[in-house]
Structures are given as C-alpha cells and as structure tokens.
Design brief:
Blueprint lengths: L2 E7 L12 E7 L13 H17 L5 E8 L6 H9 L5 E7 L9 H16 L8 E6 L3 E2 L2 H8 L6 E2 L2 E2 L14 E2 L3 E5 H7 L3 H4 L6 H9 L7 E2 L8 E2 L12 H16 L6
Parallel strand pairs: 2-3, 2-5, 3-4, 7-11
Antiparallel strand pairs: 1-4, 5-10, 6-12, 7-10, 8-9
Length: about 270
C-alpha cells in the first residue's frame, strides 16, 4: 500500500540517553468519510491536530521523545510538516498518511483505529520492540500525561489500559457494558503485536471497545497487563462523534467522581 511519510528531528535534542522518554502514537483522520463523525470539517480537524501536536511537542523529553502521527485518509501532510519544521522542539517526529478508510463506516472507530495502528507501526522505525508507547486519539490533548508517566514509572507492564465494567453515562443499559477506553492506552510494541496486531482483519463484525475489553482480559503468558490507570486521565478537545467538550463542567464532574473512586473503591471500574 502506498503512503506518504516524513521524518523530522528536533533542533534542541538532548543527547543524554538517561533522559529518554516514551514514544507517542497519534491516530488521525484528517478528512473523514461522509457520515462517519459529527466533527467532519477538515479545517476544524486540522486545527485540532495542530493544537495537539503543539501540546505534545512542548512536553519534557523525559516524558515524550518520539512522536508518530498516522493519518488514514491519504490527506495532505504539508500543513503539519510546515508546523513541526518551524516549531522549536526536541522530539523525533514521523508523519505518515495512507488510504485506510475504504471499509464501511458501520465497522466503527475501533476497526479503523487498529487498522491505522497496524499500518503505522509496520512502517515506522521510531520504536524498538521493548519501547513503551502511549497511544492517543490525535485530536485530543492528554493534559496530565506527564503526571501519568510519573505515576507509572515504578510499574512493570507491557500493556496499560483503562477498562470499565459498570454502566457509564448514556449507556442506558445494565448488561453487556464492558468497554476498553480507546482514547488513550500504553503498550510495548512486542505486546501490541501479541495482543492486537491483525485482529481487525479477523473480526470484520463486532470489533469494538467491548470486544477489546475481553481481549485484554485473556491470558497472555509472559505479558504483564494492567487493566486500570493509576490516575484519572484528563483530556482536552472535542469529541468527534458527539461534539462533546472534554473539559465541560459536566465532564469535569464525572472525572472528579472517577478520580475519587480510583482511590476509594479501586474494584469499581467506572
């Protein structure tokens, strides 16, 4: 499959290997298919991605030192290339775009996301098999990623994700409500290959957050999988599906409850 790729190196790189951080994989659809999402204006979406890139490029190098940005809409990467080239930063950045949206919209977000990640990880040379990588929905800013990284520094894991097994707001059901939060999670590349790679090809129907919840609960000998983040992620941006503001007062109230329950009732996966 043909694709476009650019590799850039930060102008203020730190040579000290002891300050090496983690990698970041930003998933993107610059030009979504018709009817796929509510936030479908390519100009608005481009601004979202540029704002997110600006935020991640500003993080300390011992938090993030490499960024892989992968778009699956075969879009023009030049606006992002110009932005990253002009901005002072200390990261290695790779931008990739390919045509990966030729499947029915009904297969859902998870199907497209994991197809995108499979492609990006197969093309990049940024990450070694044991490197730790944070995956983020590319339009969103993971505001407390630095705090999360500090909290995780003493944890031994190959996959770290957030699973939910109680009804969440707007679910409107009390059964079959298990989900994996796909907006942010962390993995080592070899663990991704063992648990996730190629799944979208084998499950054209029903490949969603509920399926992935059960997938990561399976037994994978030799892999250390942690099913809950130590702290509540704080995200900034607009939901592509519902146009929901992740920093709205309502969302901040939900996050405050979840933050409290992680400490008071860690067995309750809200």
């Amino acid at each position: 499959m043909t694709h476009t790729a650019f590799r850039l190196q930060g102008s203020t790189r730190e040579p000290d290997a002891a300050h090496r951080g983690t990698g970041l994989l930003m998933t993107a659809t610059l030009v979504p298919p018709a009817g796929a999402v509510a936030r479908n204006d390519p100009e608005e979406r481009l601004k979202d991605y540029l704002d997110a890139l600006d935020f991640y490029l500003s993080l300390p190098r011992d938090v993030v030192d490499r960024i892989l940005f992968v778009d699956n809409s075969n879009a023009d990467l030049n606006p992002l290339l110009s932005f990253v080239s002009a901005r002072e930063h200390d990261k290695d950045v790779e931008l990739i775009s390919f045509a990966g949206n030729d499947h029915p919209v009904q297969r859902g977000k998870a199907y497209g996301e994991f197809r995108l990640m499979d492609f990006g990880l197969a093309q990049t040379s940024l990450f070694a098999p044991d490197d730790l990588i944070w995956k983020t929905t590319g339009r969103l800013r993971f505001l407390n990623l630095a705090e999360m990284s500090r909290q995780c520094s003493g944890m031994e894991f190959d996959i770290l994700c957030d699973l939910r097994n109680v009804p969440w707001v707007n679910a409107r059901k009390w059964r079959d409500h298990e989900n994996m939060d796909l907006r942010v999670f962390a993995f080592r590349r070899r663990a991704y290959d063992a648990v996730f790679r190629g799944l979208w090809q084998d499950h054209e129907e029903g490949f969603d957050a509920n399926f992935l919840f059960h997938r990561v609960r399976e037994s994978f000998p030799g892999l250390r999988i942690i099913h809950r983040f130590p702290v509540q992620p704080v995200l900034q941006g607009i939901s592509g599906r519902h146009l929901h503001d992740y920093l709205s007062p309502q969302q901040q109230s939900k996050d405050a409850i979840r933050r409290f329950l992680r400490m008071a009732a860690p067995w309750l996966w809200l």
